[in-house]
Amino acid sequence: MSAFHPKAVISFYRPGTNRISPTSTNSSSLHVALPVSEQITPPRLDPKGAISHLRPMLHGVHLENLARAFEAQYEPNEHGYLFRFNMSHAPVQVSVEERDAFVATFRRRMGRFAWAIIIGSMLAFGYWAFFRDEHMPQQIEWLVVGFAVAATGSFYVWAKGAPARALQRRPAVGPPRDPSEMRQVHLSRVSYPMLAAGMVGAAIMAVVALTADRPFEGINLGLLILGLVLGLILAVQLARKWRFAGENRR
To answer: What value does the mean pLDDT of the chain take?
Structure first.
């Protein structure tokens, strides 16, 4: 019986063959043959896998809420779906296939929309951090920010209105909703915690502006006005929701 030699060389073989390729020609070494399937290979970088991990960030809660608001325009019936643009216009009959195609197109466009916002934000951060000219008038910077906000809002309106443009020649199958019914529909989709959270955020905006060094100048004044207006709007919506809920309980 031969003694175990501490110097062992691992060789590999392929199943179905008797050929062993040692990694050393030293005859005193102990050769241990391992199948190819048991070889340890280093991990490889998978770009597609990395992008797939970013998709939950792009299709996050906010984008999912936009998609649900888009899908709320479709009401199921015995023939497929009734499409009401903005949930208020006269309904138009669509098939299940048409509805699914519109929803898939909207979700795909919102995914690209998210990528554009992320890339644009990174470019803007890089400019403001490394290339910003301190002598540039502040009005130009605000003009650029306003243009970016208007562009993103216009793209969302355009994407949401795609079904209405495609179905504009299709006859309606019912009357549009009246304003009072629309208010109830919109308020039913907003919960009390959401309204309360919005009012708290508006109050924080106003407090931050008031505690600044110059609360009634420049951006602080704009932040104060925005917080007060937003808080007033949310308070009115909260009162309306409370009133409609009381009428429905009677």
So the answer is: 77
